[in-house]
Amino acid sequence: MRTPTVYQIAAWFALMAGLSPAHALTQEELVAKIQAAGYSQVSDIKSTAEGITAKAVKDGKPVTLVVDGSGQIKERN
Q1: How many H-runs (helices) and E-runs (strands) does the chain carry?
Q2: What value does the mean pLDDT take over residues 51-76?
Q3: Given CB 3.0 to 4.6 Å as the disulfide criterion, which of 6, 7, 11, 54 pairs with 24?
Q4: Is residue 69 within 8 Å of 51, Cβ to Cβ?
């Protein structure tokens, strides 16, 4: 039987408490998710009322991102 990691336990408690999956990610996991979506130079990660925001670069242009409660990455206008 596999023993759950601290991160798995924390994610489970976060989900059971009604927090979004985006909040259950570690910062490293969040950066990896953003980079997998084609962004680089991820920085200035903050939790806000609208989700988790971050600064990044895509196609040579700086952008501000919002990772919403469902884990979707959106560029803020």
Answers
A1: 3, 4
A2: 93
A3: 11
A4: yes
